[in-house]
Predict the structure.
Amino acid sequence: MSTKFSPRTVGLILADLAIIFFAIVLALYMRLGWDGATYQILENNALPKVGLASAVCLTVIYFYDLYDYGVMHHRRELLLRLIQASGIAWTVLAIMYYLVPPLMIGRGTLIYSVVLSLGLLLLWRMAIHFLTGHPDLGEKVLILGAGAAATATANIVFKRRDAGYRIAGFVSVPGVENGDSPNSGSEKVKAMILGNSDDLERIVVEKKIDRIVVALAQRRGNFPTESLLRMSLENSVDIEECASFFERVTGQVHLDMLRPSWLIFSGRDRNTRTILVFREIINRVLALIGLVLSLPIALVAALIIKLESAGDVFYRQERVGKGGAVFELLKFRSMRQDAEADGKPVWASSDDDRVTRFGKFIRKVRIDEIPQFWNILKGEMSFIGPRPERPHFVAELAEQVPFYEHRHLVAPGLTGWAQIKYPYGASVEDAREKLQYDLYYIKNQSLALDAIIIFETVKTVLFGKGGR
């Protein structure tokens, strides 16, 4: 998912839960008949068991990315993943019933319920696919501007039909400088220009516009201040900056749209000292628990590393932390001991020949990160935050990527919003993309967002995504 749980995503989850619950109850009646099913419900507490089974199925569906519009958009992929998820859910429930027989709803009901829930979910998702792709459904958006920022804003709407927005057209603003003229936009944008800023109010009324997104870097020349002010005071249409709109739809802060004043006046909640202390306590308690629980895995990993190649078990490397402070990050060694024999830092690559065979495995499943629990215990890192980078690359990236050093406003993390939303970064362009996610996290930091990141990280580790 691109952002935090939106109302549409929550609605889809609740609808799936209701469908699965209904399918299991229906399966109960089909398998046991009216009297048998009614007895199970009234006398044998079947409904709580149905709720548990529904929750298991919903969790498996979530882990198969079936709330990602990219998956929902392709029917074949949707069907394949629904079948896989149903198979896994059936297996999990079968094991659970074998280990704890009282949780069983009714003999044979499981097979009926899997077939029913699969069919109903497939029909429901196909209906959602049709509705989210229908051009006449959704909030109509008019973009003020026809340049680069307007093109970027429109592109994310075209890609994310599930967000519920439809581009009605663009309004050009003659005389605006710095690449925001109509000539700087794409051909698709030019074909959808409905008029200029003098026609703004007429276009809003004629096209029944719900939202105006202002996509202009400069606010001089023919900027329609009076028209926007009048519509805002009349409350006839929602008016929004393109940076805010882009952030909400993608879960990123677009660097090319970013202005310091937008960040200053964005209304970010201020963390009180109590919340900060609470975060520190939670981080260190979880790190201690993580160290204890992962100790058997860590011991086995250390032994294999020692047997596979000569050198130290641990790899120590300087990284930049909160406020620019440098600390020594601890990891299990996954490369040859002489990986940087010349002393020059090198970006990692997808098929890095410096990585050992066991090193590839521990990177894939994140076992190499276990020693960083110690960094968290020492207060050098947090569980969630931007990944810490090496001083050499920080200096290089700070010169090439605007606002890069702002990621050091918070403590670096073992995992983060950028880690679950973007693959492993190994270039300046990757660092730029990940920074857009990091700035989103810094701006929207909350316990709820932290919970989503932790849940997504578990999914990422289980499916081995993004490791390098």
The first helix runs from residue 7 to 43.
